Amino acid sequence: MALRIRLFEESGRVRPEVAAFVAAELAALAGEGRTVTEDSAGLLAGHLLMALTRILDGEALDGRSDAAVADALAAHPEAVARARAVALRAGRDLGAALPGPEVDFLALHLAVLPGGTPASPVAAARPAGDGAPPPAVDPPQPAGALRKGTA
Questions:
Q1: DSSP string, 32-83
Q2: CB of 124 within 8 A of CB of 68?
Q3: Looking at the whole model, is its pTM more than 0.90?
């Protein structure tokens, strides 16, 4: 994950403060026992890096949530609470207020992040027939085991 964040920052795609914020959020998740690897959290990291950057650059984020997203998140109140907390910190620390639909998408990423709280697929949140594969997650690892992409 550090390499992904560094590449985003060194390429000029994200500001250093956004890179530091996302790295800190991922470190906090890992510290809570969540599996934070390129495979399990790469999409979460990329999404958050780019969403915060677009907000700070003054771009409007005009996504919207739908009933399928709300249904999927209903089973994951802890992911919704965590996403809201991240959004509050982003607003406070970066001046980047994530809109509701972005908070929902962040919660979807958190809901499938292995470890800590049992994760379940959120394929129901995708519109039928979009052809996209379900989100990839790493299987839970035994405590103390090296995780792919962490060394």
A1: TTB--SHHHHHHHHHHHHHHHHHHHTT--------HHHHHHHHT-HHHHHHH
A2: yes
A3: no
